[in-house]
Amino acid sequence: MTLDTGTALALDRRLATEQSKQRLPSVVAGVVRGGELVWSGVAGTLDGRREGAAPTADTQYRIGSISKTFVAVEVMRMRDDGLLDLADTIGTHLPEVAFGHVTIAQLLTHTSGLQAETDGDWWERTPGDDFAGLLASGVALRSTPGTSFHYSNVGYGVLGELIARLRGMPWHEAVQTGILDPLGMTRTTRRPMDPAAPGLAVHPLADLVHVEPEHDHVSMAPAGQLWSTTNDLARWAAFLAGRCDGVLAADTLTEMLRPVAVNDVPGIPWAGAHALGWQMWNVAGRRFAGHGGSMPGFLAGLRVDVASGDGVVVMANATSGMGAVATELLDLVRQHDPVVPTPWSVDAGQADRLDLVGPWFWGTYSFTVALDSTGGFRLGEPGQGRGARFVPDGDGWMGLDGYYRGEPLRVERDASGRPVRLVLASFVFTRTPYDPGAEVPGGIDDRGWH
Prior knowledge:
23% of the residues lie in helices and 23% in strands. It is α+β, with helices and mostly antiparallel strands. It has an eight-stranded antiparallel β-sheet, with helices on both faces. InterPro entries: AmpC-like, Beta-lactam-related, Beta-lactam/transpept-like, DUF7586. Residues 13-324 form the Beta-lactamase-related domain.
């Protein structure tokens, strides 16, 4: 699969504009569609000099906080393996911490209340310490756990130690064996491996650069130490778009992408949130998932359109300067080369659910049941009021959306097999409002409708 030539040229032009306008030594990017890298581009040179060497799609850049998404997926893999529960307090597994009542889910979603950064020297530019040293520095809560969003790099250092304790190996080895190796991400590493871009800072008032330091951050490494390439990070974007390849259950990935904590900025409409390890964005009604990343000398971004599966990755070797190029690259693809809709086709398997379709009433509220391609049905319109989708769940059905997400629904039939009641979270839906031929909790007035 490839993009239209005109689309590729527009993407090349936009990337070159970003490198020039934002004064980036080099910037690389890739677009993913259908689980494949369909375009990659580079602009600038690795050292920023006109005669310098250009990067390639195999050049490593540091991805900063995108590292956290690998940590989060490994935590969810451990949950699925039965090693933990998201509701577990961290003290259950790391008894030496002073904030033992914080839950694993709160750490994943940045609602733990833990401080954002470490005490002491600027951790991103200095060698790190082990976990005992991190705790000894005085890690503390800044707010009551579970009450607000507060981004915490320290929290992901704690999750890295959690992985190490429960897997019996360093966090990065667990990520390597459980995620990177199965996905074929051979150029995603804890420390740089040539060819790798140097970390550079560009002087804000002069055309000069300054080399940024690179260290092993040890206990804080899970917060932002991984390095990757366009080719590898595109594979991670494909994973996020649903190509899990056995690394994670599809249902678990869906669970990870439900927004949990709104990143609320006073005076600014809510547009961003955090899910279980992933950032979420709402841009003009379109939902995106991914993560940004920054460390001294590097900037990175990964973003996937949840509906279409189109994704973009972008990386630069500069401490500051990169704008909204990731979103704009995706916009160009959508405008110039939109996804072709999946053709409609007959679904003969719906015949055994056909007797459910049509009007149903919850009290005097009217809902229409319509079948869909998930193997289930829609009760009303998802996203409107209490409308929701339902999928098979054992002998009954389970809600996927909104108010009824996770709630069971049971279809009750009369002696002839005709469905007469939908029992949903104790509510009863009948074919007509308060159908006298069906049992309605609370009974029906002897006068009926009068």
